[in-house]
Amino acid sequence: MKALVYHGPGSKSWEDVAKPEIGADTDAIGRVANIGVHGEPATLHLEDLWIRDVTITTGLVDTYSTPTLVQLLQGHQIDAGRFVTQRFQLAEFLDAYDIFARAGDTGALKVALARSVKPE
Q: Checking DSSP bridges between strand 11-16 and strand 86-89, what pairing results, if any?
C-alpha cells in the first residue's frame, strides 16, 4: 500500500509500505488526522506528554454532518468541485502536499487527489 512517510521536519515521502497488521493483543494500528487550517503553529510538547497516555481531540471540526454532505454530493445538490483549486493524480501526492502546505503562496483552497485527472 502507499503511505505518506514522515522522516522528520521537512522530510516526507510517498512510499510503498507493508499493510499494517495486528500481531499481538497489545498492538494498535495509530492514524493521524489533522483537519483544518492553522493560522499559527499548534505546538504539542510530546516529550512531556508521551508517558501520560494522552489522547488529543480538538474542536471546530466534527463529522456529524458528513453523512448529510455525502448525500448532498451524491444527489448533485451541491458542487464541491467549485472549491477545488488544484487537482492532482494520486501519484502526484507529494506535489499536492507541497501546494497545499504553501497555500498562502499558491492560493490553494482545496486540493483534490484522484486516480486519474479528468480534463477541465
A: unpaired
